[in-house]
Amino acid sequence: MPEEATQVLAQFAAALTYEQLPDRVKEHCKTLLLDTLACALAGHQGEETHQVAALASSLAQSSETSVIGGDHLSLAGATLFNGYLITAVTMCDAHRSTMTHVTPEVVPPALAIAERDDLSGRDLLVAIAAGCEVTTRIGIGLDYPAFRARGFHGPGVLGPLGAAAAVGRLRGFDAETMAKAFGLAGSQAAGTFAAWGTPTVKFHQCRGALSGLLAALLAEQKFLATREFLTAKDGGLYNSYANGGKPELATGDLGRRWELAQIALRLWPSADAGHGDGAVRSSRTAHDRSRRG
User: Fold this and answer.
1) Which of 172, 160, 179 lies closest to 106, judged by CA?
2) In this structure, what are the phi and psi dihedrals at residue 65, rounded to the nearest 5 degrees?
3) 73 near 101, Cβ under 8 Å?
4) Using one digit for the tens of pLDDT, what is the confidence trace for 173-229?
5) In this structure, are residues 280 and 264 in contact, taking their beta carbons and an 8 Å threshold?
6) Calpha distance 192→18 (Å, rounded)
7) pTM score, two decimals?
8) Which of 22, 148, 242, 288 is spaced 20 to 30 A from 197 at the CA atom?
9) How many whole angstroms separate alpha carbon 46 and alpha carbon 52?
């Protein structure tokens, strides 16, 4: 296995199988999916939902992909809109270590591709696991305090890579193509806390979902991209968004210790207490910590 962090994670995501997932990871991913769907249904009541719906409808005129609790839109439109629905009323998950919402970026493109390609529930579950693990692993490798001190917002920066991992797994990418997808996804990473207090912080999430989808589909066309995006000295994610990061944390015990287990859910809307190690963090706590850095 290559040593560079981008390629290690790409190899992991490309090779991951249903049989490799521990039972507790499978159950947590199922819980994440159910909670995500519930959040999206609630999101139809969001104050700005109609504005994002109009944007999503304008992206293309096709209608091959389902909106959660709604009609159909294009592949891109449904990915963007579903990502917003999940976070529209601020009830979705939060990864503890990075205070980053994960499911709004990872689940929508995975659902879209799984539906389009008529894939199985097992395929979808593996893709969600790959996407969530890649997102959270890259996050802990960032050195979050340094990342946050520079004003960056996790979902828009980390989310595109996790979304690309989920799509790439569903499309059967090899490790090289997956690493290029990460390079393309990272090149679209964006979002800062200047948007705090406005709906734009939620747009970071759905845009992350769309960015990951675009990255994976372009990588599938053999588009040339760096395969060392995380650690590149000039412009790599860890050097640009932090102070070099801690890439060894991103790859340590990979496949044995599952960082996605640290994605916490709220007591509402799922009313489920099985949140990783059993702790539940409220949305206020997560966002307050983010603001304090």
Assistant:
1) 160
2) -125, 140
3) no
4) 999 999 999 999 999 999 999 999 999 999 999 999 999 999 999 999 999 999 999
5) yes
6) 35
7) 0.90
8) 242
9) 10
